[in-house]
Amino acid sequence: MALISARSISLLLTALAAGVVLGHLMSRVGKVTLPGPLFVTVQNTLYRNWRTTVGAVEIGAFLSTFVVAFLTRRRGAIFALSLAGLLSLAGMLLVWAVFINPINIQVRATTSESPPADWALLRDRWHRLHAIRSIFAVVGLGALISAVLWDCSR
Questions:
Q1: How many C-beta atoms surround the C-beta of residue 48 within 10 A?
Q2: CA 11 – CA 144 distance, rounded (Å)
Q3: If DSSP codes are grouped into helix, strand and coil, which group holds residue 48?
Q4: Model confidence, pTM
Q5: Measured between alpha carbons, how far is 127 from 144 in angstroms, rounded to an integer?
Q6: What is the DSSP string of 61-73?
Q7: Residue 48 — pLDDT band, cuts 50, 70, 90?
Q8: Most Cβ neighbours (<10 Å): which of 27, 36, 55, 113?
Q9: φ, ψ dihedrals at 54, nearest 5°
């Protein structure tokens, strides 16, 4: 029962996290056309509270997936897939913490009246990094789903 509960939470939170990251990726098309001042306004308006909310979802996904990996540690391929999901989530969090959050802090410290001088570079880097996070998210979710399907087929 503990494994079913942990998997349910892990899959739900990982899917939510993947959806958010894919949303960032899909928003690039519209945001790449914005001038600097409007880009800063959009970033500072849309993502003002995301750090807390989305952070809780992503950390919850990681922690619940850690529990899944722990509970499946003696189950061969199921453990390997669960571990792949966990490592993918770790990669997703690491990219945010090391690379994206500093960009967020820099943009958040500015206003539309005085966007960063290199705002276009920051914007493009922010989106490229979210593309990398999208890969981690999809791979992680796929691994977790595969672990469940593998387990069900036995």
A1: 10
A2: 7
A3: coil
A4: 0.94
A5: 25
A6: HHHHHHHHHHHTT
A7: confident
A8: 36
A9: -70, -35
Tokens for 139?
Answer: 């791979």
Query: Euclidean distance between the first and final Cα of the chain, in Å?
Result: 17
- Going by pLDDT thresholds of 50, 70 and 90, the confidence category of residue 145 is very high
CA 35 to chain centroid, in Å, comes to 26
Listed residue (57, 65, 60) closest to 82, CA to CA: 65
Q: What is the largest CA-CA distance in the chain?
A: 61
CB half-sphere exposure, 61, CA atoms < 13 A: 29
List Cα–Cα distances, 35 to 48, 68, 117, 136, 147, in angstroms. Answer: 19, 45, 12, 30, 45
The closest alpha carbon to 83, from 130, 139, 131, belongs to: 139
Q: Which of 136, 134, 130, 131 is nearest to 84 (CA)?
A: 136
State residue 111 phi and psi, 5-degree precision. -125, 170
